[in-house]
Amino acid sequence: MRSSLLKYVGVAAAACLAALSLAIPATAFVNPKAWVPPRAHHVRMSAGEATAPLPLPATPQRRSEHKRKPAPPALIGMIDMNQIVGHRVENYPTETIDIETLMNWTNSQLGLHYRYVQVDLSRFSWSPTQLPVLYLTGWTPLPKFSPLILSKMRGFITAGGTLLINASCGRPEFNKSVIRLEHQLFPNRPFGPLPLDDPMYHCLNHISQMAVRNGTGPWKEIPPYLDVMYMGCRAGIIFSPVDMSWGWNAATRPIKGGVLYAQGDALRLGANILTYVLANYQYGRAFEIQKIYQQSKIATRDQLVIAQVMNNGDWNPTPHGLPNLLKFIDQKTTLSVQFKRAKVSLDSLSVGQYPILYMTGLRNFAWTPKEVQNLHAYLHAGGMLFVDCAMGSDAFDEAFRAELQKVLPHHKLKMLAMKSPVYNDVFQIRQVNYSPVVAAADPGLHAPVLEGITMDGAPAVVYSRISLSNGWEDLPNPYAKAYATADALKLGTNILVYGLTH
Predict the structure, then answer these.
(1) Side-chain half-sphere exposure of 184, counting CA atoms within 13 A
(2) pTM score of the predicted model
(3) Cα–Cα distance between 115 and 131 in angstroms, integer?
(4) At what angle do helices 147-158 and 172-185 cross, to 10 degrees?
(5) Positive or negative torsion for Cα 306, 302, 492, 285
(6) pLDDT tens digits, one per residue of 147-196
(7) Distance in angstroms (rounded) separating the CA atoms of residues 252 and 471
(8) CATH class of this structure's domain 293-501
(9) CATH for 2-26+71-287, among 3.40.50.300, 3.40.50.10420, 3.30.420.40, 3.40.50.12140?
């Protein structure tokens, strides 16, 4: 997977950019946006010349000093790439006027007053409470970061911070170095395209198409494109392989050898990114400090294994969810069992190995023929598959429905009737509450909405298009299409208890 990612302009934007002939060669490149210090003006004044002093014995009038207003809070820290802990990078090319323009434009849209600051990594506290966003841009390959810097940057993102990266002029040599940096930071969390239904494209400005230009060529309309690395259900690293900053700088001239977003589209996308970061700040902080429940070991209890299915997408976006559900079952039911979580790959799954399989995800995924075959045998042998669509993601929903058709081609997901045991096993559930996002979209929705496939009179597959696991986590997630926590826990209890006891 990593080797394919490194063939960039490539996987990062191949679907959107290469199809429109926007790929650019990695040739020698001079950025016309590069910052050049202004020339000093000639001062034609001798040392003895200056403003004349007041003639004595005149006394200056008293004046009152105006106190300087406190500086607005800083939202973005632009990394000073010329100074990295452990060594100095001489004259790493970058520009600063772009981010200042974006901040001013976003402040006017939101009615807020934030600012950006320059950040020297040797003096930075690495706390998201000081600066929620670190901003990195350039058009030449990134310099090598020391292990200390990588460790601190990883901790910053894990603690709720966001790393925002923009490829100035969309240069492939810079893009490749960003892919390598992300792999060094989180080798088990690869970049992936941000789904078009993600709130980052809709939270402030609705963005479905953006104007892109390759060099001096004509403008072309394509869907917006960002690569992200998820930390839970939040984008911890946001990377634009197409230059947004050209538009932030209110530039209108083309750049030969550059791939650029148009000004208005770039500003709207940038404002959306900052809005998304602000809205997810509390979620990011809470996600990092949330403790995963560990059930106490009691020798007299039977042990039941809940197996979570791994796939080639983001298969564990809500890591606190299932442990919280197991804690709820342990405390609120009379089921005397010792729960154990296990990770399972379908290509090694055997019939009867686990009574129930649990699966969730955020992104597109695909099962191999071997995985399809093993899951088919498992379900026909009486096993149960419980699937949750984290965040109510369209990308995961579409992928799951398509893959399930390969496993059970003669069965269709159908709405479960209210007499189904998943609504009546431990708790009788007739009405539920939803997250604000769902409630705003459908104010009249109060009934639970679960789908399933029944085989031999029993649910073999239970699927929740609206997220249960985001409800189980009970974190301040502003964009989750989810059940409210109390009802999510009750529904999850009914499903798991039924699957484990039948």
Answers:
(1) 17
(2) 0.85
(3) 10
(4) 80
(5) negative
(6) 999 999 999 999 999 999 999 989 999 999 999 999 999 999 989 999 99
(7) 46
(8) alpha beta
(9) 3.40.50.12140
